[in-house]
Design goal:
Length: about 120
């Protein structure tokens, strides 16, 4: 079910996939995050076969009425403070969705699925 915003000029509908993509891109911009863990493996496998990267990988969006909840399944870098990384990801996702999409997120749930040694940048 898409998020619908009423304005004086008309209606704006934003799909859950768009919200997931924006949230995934915002999360990947955070320090200490190595990657996202896939929760929808069939969809991600199909994207890999077609040669496309899925920025919404590891992100689930639930919309009910005016409430928007985002679940992020992440993999963090070894040696970082997991709590701080999770808090930074939560704040960044909430800020970017509010700033660029214009929606306020009620909950951003972080699920740390693993720890990995980060590759040199």
């Amino acid at each position: 079910m898409p998020k619908t915003i009423q304005t004086e000029y008309g209606t704006i509908s934003i799909s859950e996939d768009v919200i997931a993509t924006v949230a995934g891109l915002a999360a990947m911009d955070c320090y200490g995050l190595v990657g996202m863990a896939s929760r929808k493996q069939v969809k991600d496998s199909l994207s890999e076969l077609l040669g496309r990267e899925n920025p919404g990988r590891g992100v689930e969006v639930r919309i009910s009425g005016d409430d928007v909840q985002v679940d992020l399944y992440i993999v963090v870098s070894y040696g970082v403070n997991i709590y701080e990384v999770a808090q930074n990801v939560r704040e960044k996702v909430r800020y970017v969705l509010n700033d660029s999409v214009g929606i306020s997120v009620d909950r951003v749930n972080i699920f740390v699925q693993g720890v990995r040694v980060a590759a040199e940048r």
